[in-house]
Amino acid sequence: MRAHPAGPLHGAFAPPPSAGMPPADLGALDEQVWPRSARRVDGELHLGGKPVTELARTHGTPLFVLDEGDFRGRAADFATAFDGADVHYASKAFLCGQVARWIADDGLHLDACSGNELAVALAAGFPAERIALHGNNKSLVELQLAVDAGIGHVVVDSFDEIDRLVPMALARMEAGGSPVSVLIRTTVGIEAHTHEFIATAHEDQKFGFSLATGDALTAAVRVIREPALHLAGLHSHIGSQIFDTAGFEAAAHRVVGLLGQVHQATGEVLEELNLGGGFGIAYLPDDDPVTPHDVAERLRTVVAAECAALDLPVPRLAVEPGRAIAGPGTVTLYEIGTIKPVRLGSGGQGAPQVRNYVSVDGGMSDNIRTALYDASYTCVLANRTSDAPPALCRVVGKHCESGDVLVRDLWLPSDVQPGDLLAVAATGAYCWSMASNYNYLLKPPVVAVRDGAATEIVRRQTLLDVFALDAVLAGRPAPSPAIDQPAPEHPVGARS
Ligand code: LLP
């Protein structure tokens, strides 16, 4: 086989199927995928009116850039579509003090799934009565915090939890307080996928009370008979990143059936039905998520029809979107450090296939989703556009692990070089919130941009923050102050 000089791809070869053929414009910003304020100005990506090179210079890279207008706009879209229902922002997607305040100010509710998410929201001043606490293994401390703070609902998940909650609720009542309001988390036996759903009789997972075994009804009856608890309603959540509303509709059908059973068994008419989150977003231009308006219409229709069939009043609906509010408005900015062309073997017509491994200054510690879920992302060269021919690339991080991949297959201009900025789209949900200190990389900051202003809403973790946790290192200086800074080795936007 003839050797081929490493470098940009040219010549015919069969690209791996996941990359597809190169798009006509490698720098295009598909409006489904990129934040609402994303624009190219003289070739450079601007977010919230801010040029990315300026953001990178000021805040360093890796950097989460959150388009405030996009985040709050999507929250408002859900609130409008679900007018008359409660929209709980699922804070596990991304939570910090500022986000808690936006959600509070914009009138939404908040779903917390640990005592510490609850603590963050309360510390930010989020109204307790608009918070619901989830979790399959809530500790006594977490439950006590929820009871003392007077949160809206505890979403009970097990018989053990009811046993733990009752004495706390009784103590609150004895002190003159009201009963603790709870929802029963049900497992409806629907396994949701992106384009299909499979109803299963047996649910092999840790959340909720099974409808199929009758546990959900037993739990509901048990709660109704506890004077210190108030059963406000039922809860169901079928999964995440779901495009097809059929799964939600099937779940709604089943959980309304349980409302009917509860009514039959106890005479109680429950006031709330929370159908969870899971509404998918576009990570790639071809993804086709449903709009909040369509989801709301379909859920309302199914619930109304099922309730009519059972001669029950329609309960107040609630939903818990996380990704669909937080995901699309944030991008991660990285600086390219090294580029390594790797020969993949021979392609069509004898031309070798080459994949450029484009290494950036973050990786699986700030976005674990590609490695963990085989998630698909897209990215663009952000500090400039380029007319260079497309090169097949894989964007990887700097961790000591070959699975440290951010974008598995994509086309970038063949002249990308160290010092260029890459922007990975739709990283607002489950990236910062799932970030780690693997290889002692530090958690990136989050900068909110809006109307030409940038505000660091979460600062970059420093090495000294991490040293502070270590029995030996606490209080010691970092060996080099530079190691604590995201100091680019190459001027940002070298070719701009
Ligand atoms: N409500 C409940 C009870 C949930 O368990 C979840 C997500 C949500 C709402 C919000 O779902 P969303 O609207 O964001 O899809 N780490 C995974 C996602 C885990 C979701 C867990 N529960 C990921 O990165 O895809």
TrEMBL record:
Pyridoxal 5'-phosphate binds at G278, E320, P321, G322, R323, Y430. Pathway: Amino-acid biosynthesis; L-lysine biosynthesis via DAP pathway; L-lysine from DL-2,6-diaminopimelate: step 1/1. The modification N6-(pyridoxal phosphate)lysine is found at K92. Its EC number is 4.1.1.20. Residues 70-326 form the Orn/DAP/Arg decarboxylase 2 N-terminal domain. Its cofactor is pyridoxal 5'-phosphate. PROSITE patterns: ODR_DC_2_1, ODR_DC_2_2. InterPro entries: Ala_racemase/Decarboxylase_C, DAP_deCOOHase_LysA, De-COase2_C, De-COase2_CS, De-COase2_N, De-COase2_pyr-phos_BS, Orn/DAP/Arg_de-COase, PLP-binding_barrel. It is an enzyme of class 4 (lyase). Keywords: Amino-acid biosynthesis, Decarboxylase, Lyase, Lysine biosynthesis, Pyridoxal phosphate. Substrate binds at R323, R369, Y373, E401, Y430. Specifically catalyzes the decarboxylation of meso-diaminopimelate (meso-DAP) to L-lysine. Homodimer. HAMAP family: LysA. This is Diaminopimelate decarboxylase. It comes from Geodermatophilus amargosae.
